[in-house]
Automatic annotation (TrEMBL):
The organism of origin for this protein: Haemophilus haemolyticus M19501
GO molecular function: oxidoreductase activity
Name assigned to this protein: Putative NAD(P)H nitroreductase
Cofactor-binding details, from the entry: Binds 1 FMN per subunit.
Enzyme Commission identifier(s): 1.-.-.-
Lineage, highest ranks first: Bacteria, Pseudomonadati, Pseudomonadota, Gammaproteobacteria, Pasteurellales
Amino acid sequence: MDALTLLTTRKSNKKLTAPAPNTEQFKLILQAAMHAPDHGKLHPYHFVVMENDGLNKLETLLKAAVVEFDLGEEKLKKAENLAHRAPMVIAVVAKIDPTIAKVPGWEQMLSAGCATYGLQLAAQAQGFDNVWISGKWVNGTALREAFGCCEQDRVIALVMIGTGMEKAERECRVIDTKDFVTYL
Ligand SMILES: Cc1cc2nc3c(=O)[nH]c(=O)nc-3n(C[C@H](O)[C@H](O)[C@H](O)COP(=O)(O)O)c2cc1C
């Protein structure tokens, strides 16, 4: 698939199943993420990969957050479903260093966001569907601890990756851009 087709047909899919990317495919996904634009060459992010038993651990961590934030009974079931929605989950932690004068925290956050998009695009380029999920539970104390977060870090994504259960339509939907662009 050429780059422009990939960019203009990218689509999320929440209905995912095995297989997940294999080791070689996963390496390429990480490479794509780490080629994101990066002021100061900081690589201000960390990836936590969950498969197999890691997904059971994710379930426990999401449920702990539901209890911590008193999100209600229904969310406990949602946490269970979410943790097992895909055979692979890559959590993205934005590692923000507020002491770097040249690169403010918000720029570091943007790099981490671009890296996340890189994960998504490289997964899709290799035939794997995916979706970027967040939610209040990513702020859970136990989850943050398990992901190795420092105080200023933010868990910005749980990228769920797998094989689409149904073949998603990948047509190039032309979006009307006129309200989003001006020229000087
Ligand atoms: C920072 C961020 C957080 C998101 N969090 C969620 C989420 O928690 N739940 C959800 O259903 N979609 C979430 N989304 C949106 C989906 O990943 C997806 O982009 C959206 O459903 C639109 O589908 P599309 O990517 O095919 O255009 C998030 C997107 C971003 C950029």
